[in-house]
From TrEMBL:
Residues 128-206 form the Peptidase M15C domain. Signal peptide: none annotated. This is M15 family metallopeptidase. Residues 1-24 are annotated as: Disordered. SUPFAM superfamilies: Hedgehog/DD-peptidase. Residues 7-17 have a biased composition (Pro residues).
Amino acid sequence: MPQCTGAPPPVEVPAPAPSTRERPAPATIAAVTAAELGATWRPGCPVTPSQLRRVTLTHLGFDARPHRGELIVHQDLVEPVVAIFERLYWLEFPIEKMRPVAHYSKADDQLSMQDNNTSAFNCRRIAGSGNWAQHAYGRAIDVNPLLNPMVDHGKFEPKNAKVYLDRRRIEPGLLHPGDPAVRVFTDAGWRWGGNWKSPVDYQHFERR
């Protein structure tokens, strides 16, 4: 996936309104093995399984109820990822599902995106490039990728996202410039692909 070329100056994220929602269960952190990573990892990848962690988090679903999901991220990003997703929960930003890409046949990123699955680690290269994607380091997260496609000169991914090319849509789970959910990431030092010129990658956040 192409990398970020720039980002606007950070904007302070307003505190979420008081909520009667129950406090989420604490995140849990666990080491992962090569066997658990399945097809998302292989020898020669730029990180080893020992550098990755499985983070189990509470997120708000599209049914407005709390759900538990998992992200595989670099060990250095565990604390910021936990803080970001707790903030998203209190902002009532919905995430349809959140599970490792190993859940999908051959760790196929296209299948994961078509299923609107929010994910992080996957040892793959940038499309059309020999360079490793930040996902291959566990340093990128794709959020609601069906609703927030990658667009490049009329082409888009995932393949079933055509209706969401219209960024005037405002249903829950979409990401737009200036949205509180976007600023939760960018104010914490992450780059958003929605700020890129070409391609524009609305689902993608990364922190190097």
